[in-house]
Amino acid sequence: MAEILVLVEHVEGEVKKVTLELLTLARTLGSPSAVWAGPGSSADAKARLAEYGADKVYIADSAEVSDHVVAPKTALLAQLVSSASPAAVLVAATAEGKEVAGRLAIRTDSGIITDAVGLVDGPVAEQSIFGGGVNVHSRVTKGTPIFAVRPNATTPEASTGAAAEEQVTVTLSEADKAAKVVERVKQEKGARPELTEAAIVVSGGRGVGSAENFAVIEKLADALGAAVGASRAATDAGWYPHQFQVGQTGKTVAPQLYIAAGISGAIQHRAGMQTAKTIVAINKDPEAPIFELADFGVVGDLHQIVPQLTEEVDKR
Ligand code: FAD
């Protein structure tokens, strides 16, 4: 079966959910080989990759791989493309993943498709364009197809793989070492789950009214153990940080429950949340487009409804 390389995204030794999604997609194309770059590989991490179908795990567990930003990861993948001749390479369409994918395409003289939302036999990538209004299928016609797939594009499904381990030594050129990591500042990890991995997301839009008023959204999120999201209107106004923006130019989320408060439901916002299992909209305008998408809608002022909802949740 054709080998499909999957670059593992990991934080502090833990495999991120998007990698499990990529392994699930890779199985539709062939035999997935996970590629672990940097320190922190462990028996637990390997078991997790095996659980989602990795037949092979290439491990380049050296500090040097993570000490020079993204270039060594590109070098590692380029080395494996040359030695293993995979049928495709999958990376997460995160900021780092897309940079690795772009550099890899140049290095291996291959075609690349970014922001894929699915893969079809071929290998052909599915992309969602015009804010989710149109889906297109695209094929790479040159070199080894490289696909950067958006997180939450698919649901990870377990399937046991052999996870045969192969240690790899990456040969880095002087150019690969040109940028060096001089300091790592740990991002403050709040009590809330990560936006793209959360089971529940509570998002606020222009209807929230101000940065201070976002406390109302945060209180409901904390009562539900949810992540907080925001529309672009709210992030552009400086009411909430841009990293929490949901939508076409923000993050894609696919939680079990998405609560949109004071969000009209513009197509660019929908593009980032329309695959949520259950959508609840709170909006004072009964004609707001978000109600076309919502499973449950509450027409009213969010400043009255959201605190009441929080109070009810807190009682349970
Ligand atoms: P509005 O559209 O102004 O809606 C506010 C809603 O709040 C209204 O429906 C109103 O009835 C309701 N409301 C007001 N007060 C209350 C209240 N007290 N109680 C209850 N409801 C109330 N947008 C994104 O979100 N994410 C993106 O990634 C994104 N990318 C974009 C990319 C491009 C290229 C472009 C052109 C636009 C993009 N946008 C994106 C912007 C998008 O088009 C909308 O402008 C934006 O989503 C609107 O945000 P909103 O729903 O919060 O604000």
UniProtKB/TrEMBL annotation:
Residues covered by the Electron transfer flavoprotein alpha/beta-subunit N-terminal domain: 4-185
Cofactors: FAD
Top-level taxon of origin: Bacteria
SMART domains reported in the protein's UniProt record: ETF
Keywords: Electron transport, FAD, Flavoprotein, Transport
Stored CDD domains: ETF_alpha
Name of the protein: Electron transfer flavoprotein subunit alpha/FixB family protein
Organism: Sphaerisporangium rhizosphaerae
